[in-house]
Amino acid sequence: MGMRPCCISRFSTFSSTPCRPCRDGGRIGVGIRSEGGNVRIEIEDAGQGIPIDLLDKIWDPFFTTKDKGTGLGLGIVKNIVEAHGGRVRLANREPQGARVTIELPGRAPEGNA
Ligand SMILES: Nc1ncnc2c1ncn2[C@@H]1O[C@H](COP(=O)(O)OP(=O)(O)O)[C@@H](O)[C@H]1O
Ligand SMILES: [Mg+2]
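Above: the input record for the complex with adenosine-5'-diphosphate. Below: its predicted structure, written as tokens.
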């Protein structure tokens, strides 16, 4: 399946988010698989994870815990994924780290060629 250019360009944003927690030499994992006609993309890190009380707030525009963060990355990603008929989630992993899960329909929604 061909991925549309704006999805590809945003991939760098997904990847830079989990990269920060592991910039001291950690690893991120990326998995892409086809699932019942949909595409599931998972990006996971072994960073500090997200404090439980911030799990809802991280999606708010301009919410950031970084000194020089913009708080816009996740919102932009969510807008693009939803414009393509998909959805995105961010959850903690056990025993540590976070995972971004993006599900996209294999077929573009009506009127979104
Ligand atoms: N992989 C992650 N691990 C831990 N926290 C994260 C992760 N991704 C996002 N966050 C949290 O969500 C906040 C908002 O992220 P984002 O919208 O991308 O803005 P920014 O990266 O500019 O802070 C981050 O400041 C951080 O607190
Ligand atoms: Mg970010």
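Notes for the reader.
Residues 17, 73 surround magnesium ion (ligand 2) (CB under 6 Å).
The chain has a mean pLDDT of 85.
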